[in-house]
Amino acid sequence: ALIYIILSFKAVQKYKTLLLENFATSETFSNYRFLKQMVYLIIVGFLLTFIKEIFIYTGNQNAINIARIIMLIFGLYFYSWIILKALHAPKLFRGVASHMKPVKELIQRTPEIPTNQPKNSNNDVEIQIKKLQAFMLEKEPYLNASLTVNDLAKQLDMLPRDLSILINHHLDQHFFDFINEYRIKKAMKMLNDPSLKKHTILEILYEVGFNSKSPFNAAFKKFTNLTPSQYRKTPLK
Questions:
Q1: Phi, psi of 118 (to 5 degrees)
Q2: Fewer CB within 10 Å: N-end or C-end of the chain?
Q3: How high does pLDDT run on average in the chain?
Q4: What phi-psi label fits residue 210: left (phi over 0), alpha (psi between -120 and 50 degrees) or beta?
Q5: Rounded to the nearest 5 degrees, what angle is found at the Cα of 113, between the Cα atoms of 110 and 117?
């Protein structure tokens, strides 16, 4: 059971890494939160089973009956929770493509990427980075709230694998943070623009590629140490 729990946590952590490296919307992380909650519930189930076995070994019939009732209630709760999740959020059960691999694994399978040199010391890599940065500034693909590595790779005429390595390895940034940084910089400009004073923060966050207020506020504070409201009230930066 312990080995199963450890492997489950490793699998959930790997899933989180795949989300950070390939997606740029916080809504995607509802899958990760669901899986983490499920692992915790499975642990509770293991503990209850272990306690019941102890009571069976001691022969205390009253304790055994109580343990069985608790396990029955827990089982009903667990299955009801799964069914309600499936009904209210069916996308939770779609997951990511099975062929997707974390960048760390992709690099291990790519011998032409030297691991003993600075990540962006290669001239070809520097050219690709400049091309990517110029494209981000000119075309602003990050305004698409559902942008993924695959989407951006198509626009750049690159293989998703190569773009993922470029951003997550050579730029040393998760794709999630890479895209959100551009979104926040765009939001900062809009918040500083006197002609957009009548625009609400909610309107601005939608315009720069966020889907809701909470992820926008969290990302904004991460990059500026201020909330959007605080930033807007400060003198022109």
A1: -55, 145
A2: C
A3: 87
A4: beta
A5: 150
At residue 161, what is the residue type?
R
Backbone angles phi, psi at 27, to 5 degrees: -60, -30
Amino acid identity, position 35: L
**CB-count burial class (<10 Å; 0-12, 13-18, 19+) for 200:** exposed
Exposure string of 83-120, with b = 16+ CB inside 10 Å and e = fewer, is eebeeeeeebeeeeeeebbbbeebeeeeeebeeeeeee
Among 100, 212, 229, 122, which Cα is nearest to 166's? 122
DSSP reduced 3-state for 148: strand
State the Cα angle at 84 between 78 and 89, rounded to 5°. 125
Rounded percentage of the chain residues whose pLDDT exceeds 70: 89
pTM over 0.70: yes
